[in-house]
Specification:
The complex is a heterodimer of chains A (about 110) and B (about 110).
Chain A lengths: L4 E3 L2 E4 L5 E6 L6 E8 L3 E9 L2 E5 L6 E5 L5 E5 L8 E8 L8 E2 L3 E5 L1
Chain B lengths: L3 E4 L2 E5 L4 E7 L6 E6 L5 E6 L3 E5 L2 E6 L4 E6 L8 E10 L2 E4 L5 E6 L1
Parallel strand pairs in B: 2-11
Antiparallel strand pairs in B: 1-3, 3-8, 4-5, 4-9, 6-7, 7-8, 9-10, 9-11
The chains are: A mainly beta (about 110), B mainly beta (about 110).
Chain lengths: ~110, ~110
């Protein structure tokens, strides 16, 4: 069974540009979570999607947004990139909401120059 | 929100040694996961353990939810065990995201 996949693996952008990151959950999983791992800040929760709806977001500005498609895949958009957005972005999926086990993809490493 | 503290922050072991990693959390939790982050950044699931004890090969974990801590035991460590270990409880009622501790960086030397 395929795990969570993310694309691209690496992404290099300049300040002010927009970045789009993609995530495909494990087959049968309907919840997708996004996390940011920035140097020195640890792993922080960004966004949670379930059944196509945004259910919760972490303490991040509105320029971090995303959506979940009918096939439960998801994309994360970061507008007006800033240098401090450079980080590893990890996507996780779980079977439904509630306190089910989350499985992570390999991540997208975003570098903002 | 819930606070998660992991100790020790860094640990250096000789190959073959045993270790115990601790995770304290500030509030009651509905579930808790342990992960190993490899050098490429991938988070590998180790345990999904709301309470009690589970074992998987050389690794085992115990969560005592009433006392708000979890322990990860690594026996007969190998160099491939090196990396960062994270504890992540599920935050609370209605919030199903994980809250991560700062991790324990383990280095196993031959």
């Amino acid at each position: 069974e395929a795990g969570v996949t993310q694309s691209p693996t690496h992404l290099i952008k300049t300040r002010g540009q927009q970045a789009t990151l993609r995530c495909s959950p494990i087959s049968g999983h309907t919840s997708v979570y996004w996390y940011q791992q920035a140097l020195g800040l640890g792993l922080q929760f960004l966004l949670w999607y379930d059944e196509g709806e945004e259910r919760n977001r972490g303490n991040f500005p509105p320029r971090f947004s995303g959506r979940q498609f009918p096939n439960y895949s998801s994309e994360l958009n970061v507008n007006a990139l800033e240098l401090e957005d450079s980080a590893l972005y990890l996507c996780a999926s779980s079977f439904g909401a509630r306190y089910n086990e989350q499985f992570f993809g390999p991540g997208t490493r975003l570098t903002v120059l | 929100g819930i606070q998660v503290e992991q100790s020790p922050p860094d640990l250096i072991l000789q190959e073959g040694a045993n270790s115990t990693l601790r995770c304290n959390f500030s509030d009651s939790v509905n579930n808790l996961q342990w992960f190993h982050q490899n050098p490429w950044g991938q988070l590998i699931n180790l345990f999904y353990i709301p309470s009690g004890t589970k074992q998987n090969g050389r690794l085992s974990a115990t969560t005592v939810a009433t006392e708000r801590y979890s322990l990860l035991y690594i026996s007969s460590s190998q160099t491939t065990d090196s990396g960062v270990y994270f504890c992540a409880p599920h935050s609370g009622a209605g919030s199903y995201q994980l809250t991560f501790g700062k991790g324990t960086k383990l280095s196993v030397i031959p």
